[in-house]
Amino acid sequence: MKISVLVPSYRRPQDLARCLAGLARQRRPADQIVVVARDGDGETIDTVRRFAPLFAPNTPPDLILVDQPGVIHAMAAGLDHVRGEVVAITDDDAVPHADWLERIERTFAESVKVGGVGGRDLIPGELGEPGGLHEKVGLVQWWGRVVGNHHLGCGGPRRVQVLKGVNCAYRTGLLRKAGFDRRLKGAGAQVHFELGIGLDLIGRGWQLVYDPAILVDHFPAPRQDYDRRNSFNARAVSDAVHNETFLLLNHLPPVRRAALLAWSLACGTRNAPGLLCLALEARSDRRLALDRWRATLRGRMEGLASWRRERTPRGMPLAASP
């Protein structure tokens, strides 16, 4: 089994250097490393070239340059150059543990039904205390609530419905069929793209496996767009909610689609509130709660509108990806 590693990167040279050093320390070396950088991002390009000597003479990182923004465009361009039967994906602000590829390869080898494999990303300050870890990871509940918790997973390997982009791997042919959905919104990080891939593969009869022993250290770095991670931005919230809503409506059956819309508008979550969560959050910061609720509502309506535009006249949903 040949394994390629795909790393999109943009204006994070120090983070990328740390990531490449981690890839160079793999006990099971990658057969190919593909780094995708933006045209004109000289620091990223120089970092890839400086770290090339760390790898075997015949496996220096392949550097792919793109001229459009967005992680989806970058990963799609990188995937076009992948040669391995399996492609492992991580972020430039993550450092894979030395047994990362070794464990990924072993999990794929255990069953031909496994289409995707992922693991835990250890985030400083969010490592989880005893009792704060979770066995419910990467699930889509019946009414459409997406449960993440990938960074707090515990227990043994288990089947899931969505993997996290910072620590995942797929059979290359399957990922090419699923595709990176270019209809998702976002200037840099098109949030929730992994959801569409996971649901597409499961819909085709493949399995996704999450193993918390497959580890990367994740140091979330600032994004180079209006989504600043830990500060509220209405457009970033709307984009994320749009993407999640659009992908779920594409893949859920009719009854579950109705349940999703009813639950999301009536209840929702803290980050994407419906009316109930709005009332709860407004007790501590009324203005912020209202702003987040408005942005969420806009994203839900935009996601619903996008989904409706993609349907045929008979009302059958089109494929989520080309």
Automatic annotation (TrEMBL):
Record bears the keyword tRNA processing: no
Pfam assignment, any one: Glycos_transf_2
InterPro entries: Glyco_trans_2-like, Nucleotide-diphossugar_trans
Keywords: Glycosyltransferase, Plasmid, Transferase
Domain of life: Bacteria
Residues annotated as domain Glycosyltransferase 2-like: 4-133
PANTHER family, per the entry: GALACTOFURANOSYLTRANSFERASE GLFT2 (PTHR43179:SF12), RHAMNOSYLTRANSFERASE WBBL (PTHR43179)
Family statement drawn from the similarity comment of this UniProt entry: Belongs to the glycosyltransferase 2 family.
Entry protein name: Glycosyltransferase
